[in-house]
Each structure stands twice: as C-alpha cells, then as structure tokens.
C-alpha cells in the first residue's frame, strides 16, 4: 500500500492504523495460531462503524486485498493476509444485555469470555464455543458449535439480527424481516458477505451447569467411545458431552500420577435442573469408574474458560476436520491407533456433539448444512516448538486421511485450514448454490475473499 494511500487512510480513521514501519507491527500482525506468519500492508484498529465503512470503501476503491479480524482465533489465520488491509474489530466491544426482552447486542470485536461475563450477570447465556478467547464474530458466522449445542442449538440458531457493512460501504440490518436472504447466508456462511459489526442474540436462562472433564484409561478407549456414541445420541437435550483423546497436562489441578498420560475422556455439560444432576450422572459413573472425575456444578463462564490457560495464544496449530454420522469399530480402531501416537502433549482429537436441539432445524433453514451429522470432528496437531511443526502436521494429516472415508464429506468451516474450493463446496453441500447467488447480490466483486471463500454465482 503506497505511503500516500496509507496517509490518506490514517487521516480518515478515528482508530489507529499500524504500518510495517511501526514498532508495534510485528505484535499487531500476530494471531492465535503461531503457525500463521502473514505480513499485511496495514492493520486498521477500527473504533466504530464509520471506521469500518471507511476501510471497506478504501479497499474497494484502491483494489486492495481486505481481511477481517475479530478474535484472531481462526484455524487458517484467515483474519489476516499478506499485503492486505486488515480491519481489526478488537476495539469494538460494546455489549448491551436486556433482561426484559431476553436479548443481548454485542459488537463484532468481543471475545466469548466477555460476552459470557456480561450475560452471566443477569443469569443468562448465549450458546457459543469452548474457549473464552475465541471471537464472537468468527465463531458465530461459521455456525457456533460448543458445550451447549445439544441443549440450545448453534450460536446461529439463537441469532436474531446482525448489522453488516456491505462491500459497497452501506450499513444494513439482516434479520428474518430485513434482508432475510442475507440473514440466511450469515448463519453459517462465514465472512463472505460483509463485515458484521454487531450481533443480537436471544438469551437462554442459565447460570450454573454440572460440567467438566471425565477421563478413562486409553486402553478403555474402544469401549468408552462406542458407549459414548450410543449414549449421547439418546440422551436428553440438556446433556452434552464431547469425546476426546488427549494427553493429561502436567499442571495442577490434574493429579501427578496422570501427568503426560495419554487418555480418553468426555467433557460433560448438563444444563438441566441442578437438583437432578447427580442422578443424571449416576449411570455414567457406574458404567466404568473414571480415572479422573472433575465433573460438578460450576458457573457457565467457568466452563467456557476452563481450558484457556492450557492453550495460550502463539502455539503452532494444524487442523483437520470432518462431519461424522456414525462411529463403527473400524473407525474406532483408527482413532485408537493415532491416539496412542499423540506426538506432543498439546495434540488432541475432539468429537463435538451436534444432535439434540441443533438437529431439530432443517438443513435449508440456515446456510449451515450438516444438521444430520452427529459430530463435528476435529484433529489438531499442536506444538510450542517450531522444530516439531512437520511432525504434528504429518500426524494430523495421516489421522484424518485414514478416517475421512468414514465421514460425511464436509467439515465445520471454522475448523478448516486453507484447503481449497472443493472442501468449501463439500462443507456447504446443497446450500452452496444459494450461497453463491446471495454472494453475487451482496459482494459481486468478491471483495470479502480472505475466508472459506464462496465464489459469486455468474449471472
């Protein structure tokens, strides 16, 4: 970006514009995934909607690549790009809760832990993810899977309205009544259609959950994975629990005798009547005595930030993912093979449960297209050592390649790295054609393309 252009943009913004020559540039260009090393032309820290509009217009008029960063948590680092103007929303953190209407309006720069803290004050919550450091915007636009998906649906199933800066610089509202086609597309279609500067969610009354991790020996993995698959798909909606293979972190409060041990487990979340929680978990605990049981009552924000400290920003991540319907003996054997080979203590595999409330909405009601899946599986190779980068990538790729034939074909877009147009199409399935038509209407020149990109339909 030429100096004269950057000078013009800098003068037009209320927020700050960071350039490669600035001392804070290297810090500013970092994102959550330390494997991402991009060098944007400029990073605009937008203070308000007018700043966002200024940046969108500037990028369009000067033919500059545009990237949008909210929490910076994206697996593929798609909130930043080489030679791009980055719209950073991290200064836009206003949250307004309304107990009477049971809604919350949250700006696009907020993190989940900030949203959870605000809604918890009035005894409410918005179904979201599993890490407090995740951005509200990116999580929601991809769908919004997490601990409460079985109980209350995806984040998008609780979205009432969005305010969006479009490619032509106009600010519009998207809801069931205003621009309903855009509203449909935003619910799972990612950042393809504009910069979402605010979200209005329906709140769910929930203060305390009965939740936490329960671990079993790895040698019991086949038995427990098969049991969990049968159990969770018949469980009441208020009970969620995602299955995982992991290495026990060598830190408190995990007991020393389990440190660095490879194990299988479930992270549970019961959102029903707390007086019934112990009875709900009696048959679970009786099925096979866990080697570790940290399940009990806790405030929602505690569950939502439970693992934040174990995965600080800057670790090197490589993700592979798929949607899964069934888990048979052959797939379980593959899981166990790679679980026994977890290459670093950070590497893991999670099977997030989709059924329950999320499955009661039709595939064509939102852009999110895998309501019939039971799980969104993610395999993550993670290390804090650049010398182990290829090792964790190879493990994740091999694990995924062996399991992919047992999948439904597509993957949760928030779990995708940069994997090409065919993977994007597979992840939207029958909804891709409609998404491409809506893209052509709202962003015909594909200004918003640093994402899991949906190409505008050719009219």
Any overview of this molecule?
The chain is an alpha+beta fold. It has three domains: 3-88, Uridine Diphospho-n-acetylenolpyruvylglucosamine Reductase, domain 2 (2-Layer Sandwich), CATH 3.30.43; 95-205, Uridine Diphospho-n-acetylenolpyruvylglucosamine Reductase, domain 3 (2-Layer Sandwich), CATH 3.30.465; 208-415, Vanillyl-alcohol Oxidase, Chain A, domain 3 (3-Layer(aba) Sandwich), CATH 3.40.462.20. 28% of the residues lie in helices and 23% in strands. It has helices at 3-12, 25-28, 49-61, 112-120, 136-142, 149-152, 180-186, 221-232, 277-287, 300-304, 329-339, 389-403, 421-428, 432-442; strands spanning 16-18, 42-45, 66-69, 85-88, 95-98, 103-107, 124-125, 159-165, 171-175, 195-202, 204-205, 208-217, 239-247, 262-270, 292-293, 296-299, 316-324, 348-353, 375-383. Strands 12, 13, 14, 15, 16, 17, 18 and 19 form an eight-stranded antiparallel beta sheet that branches. Strands 5-6-10-8-9 form a five-stranded antiparallel beta sheet. A four-stranded mixed beta sheet has the order 1-2-4-3, covered by helices on one side. Helix 11 packs antiparallel against helix 12. The protein is globular. It starts with a helix and ends in a 17-residue tail after the last helix. The mean pLDDT is 97.
Please state the overall shape, judged from the principal axes of the Cα atoms: globular
Amount of beta strand: 15-25%
Please bin the fraction of helical residues: 25-40%
| Low-confidence runs | none
Largest sheet at a glance? Answer: 8 strands, antiparallel
Report the span from N to C terminus: 32 Å
């Amino acid at each position: 970006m030429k100096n004269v252009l950057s000078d013009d943009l800098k003068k037009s913004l209320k927020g700050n514009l960071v350039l490669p020559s600035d001392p804070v540039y290297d810090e500013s260009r970092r994102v959550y995934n330390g494997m991402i090393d991009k060098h944007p032309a400029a990073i605009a820290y937008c203070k308000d909607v007018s700043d966002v509009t200024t940046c969108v217009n500037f990028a369009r008029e000067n033919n500059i690549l545009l990237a949008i960063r909210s929490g910076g948590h994206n697996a593929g680092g798609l909130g930043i790009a080489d030679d791009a103007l980055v719209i950073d929303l991290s200064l836009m953190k206003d949250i307004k809760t309304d107990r009477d209407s049971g809604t919350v309006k949250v700006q696009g720069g907020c993190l989940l832990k900030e949203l959870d803290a605000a809604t918890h004050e009035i005894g409410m919550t918005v179904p979201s993810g599993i890490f407090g450091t995740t951005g509200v915007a990116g999580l929601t636009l991809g769908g919004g899977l997490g601990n409460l998906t079985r109980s209350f649906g995806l984040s998008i199933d609780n979205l009432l309205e969005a305010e969006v800066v479009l490619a032509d610089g106009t600010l519009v509202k998207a809801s069931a009544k205003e621009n309903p086609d855009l509203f449909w597309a935003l619910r799972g279609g990612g950042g393809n259609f504009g910069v979402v500067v605010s979200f209005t969610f329906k709140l769910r009354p929930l203060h305390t959950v009965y939740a936490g991790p329960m671990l079993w020996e790895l040698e019991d993995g086949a038995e427990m994975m098969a049991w969990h698959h049968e159990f969770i798909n018949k469980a009441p909606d208020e009970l969620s629990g995602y299955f995982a293979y992991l290495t026990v972190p060598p830190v408190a409060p995990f007991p020393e005798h389990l440190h660095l041990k490879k194990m299988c487990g479930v992270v549970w979340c019961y959102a029903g009547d707390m007086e019934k929680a112990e009875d709900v978990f009696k048959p679970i605990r009786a099925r096979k005595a866990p080697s570790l049981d940290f399940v009990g009552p806790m405030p929602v924000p505690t569950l939502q930030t439970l693992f934040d400290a174990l995965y600080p920003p800057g670790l090197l991540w490589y993700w592979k993912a798929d949607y899964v319907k069934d888990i048979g003996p052959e797939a379980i054997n593959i899981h166990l093979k790679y679980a026994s080979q977890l290459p670093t203590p950070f590497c893991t595999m999670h099977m997030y449960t989709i059924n329950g409330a999320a499955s009661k909405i039709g595939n064509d009601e939102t852009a999110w297209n895998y309501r019939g899946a039971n799980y969104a599986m993610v395999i993550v190779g993670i290390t804090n050592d650049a010398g182990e980068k290829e090792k964790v990538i190879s493990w994740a790729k091999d694990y995924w390649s062996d399991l992919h034939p047992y999948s439904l074909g597509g993957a949760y877009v928030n779990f995708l790295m940069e994997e090409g147009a065919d993977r994007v199409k597979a992840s939207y399935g029958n909804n891709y054609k409609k998404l491409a038509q809506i893209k052509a209407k709202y962003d015909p020149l594909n200004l918003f393309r640093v994402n899991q990109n949906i190409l505008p339909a050719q009219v």
